[in-house]
Amino acid sequence: MKQQKAIGFYFNIIAAILAVAALVAYAVMAQDGQSAPASVYVVSLVALVLQVVTLVGASTKGEGQVLDLLNIVTAVLYAVALVLLAQGRMAVVVNVFANHVGTVGTPLIAALGLFAAAILVKMISGFMAMTKNRPETL
């Protein structure tokens, strides 16, 4: 049975779009020949798969404790990806902010900002209903 979507559902879609944009910025940045941990891709893709599962589950089955847990796990995985990205590129981060923002720095700042935005939107969506006919639970 299809569920009527609420604002939290759309915030989840926005978070997924931001995460995909962050991955694209990371992929552009990773072509500079410096260290680019593949773990960022793995963690981000796992988070995106869980995000899609959450959206599909909310669309078909409605909300519940499992989807609430998936929302939390997805936000944590986005945060882990952000930390891994910053940790793997710490020398570039320092250089960007110490000297100038060049062609290497722009995708890095974009990837960091987009992951941070995805985390923020995902956390906000956790406080919103994803469907309009959610049963009240304690």
Task: Report on the architecture of this protein.
The protein has helices at residues 7-29, 39-60, 65-88, 90-98, 105-125. Helix content is 72%, strand content 0%. The two termini are 24 Å apart. It is built from five helices and no strands. The chain is mainly α and 138 residues long.
Question: What is the topological layout?
Answer:
Blueprint: H1 7-29, H2 39-60, H3 65-88, H4 90-98, H5 105-125
Helix pairs in contact: 1-2, 1-5, 2-3, 3-5
Provide mean pLDDT, rounded: 79
The major sheet is characterized as: none
The total of beta strands comes to 0
Query: How many individual helices?
Result: 5
- Structural class category: mainly alpha
Helix content: over 70%
**Gyration radius, rounded:** 17 Å
What string, H for helix and E for strand, traces the elements in order?
A: HHHHH
Note the overall shape. Answer: elongated
State the separation between the terminal residues, measured CA to CA. 24 Å
Q: Which blocks of ≥5 consecutive residues have pLDDT under 50? A: none
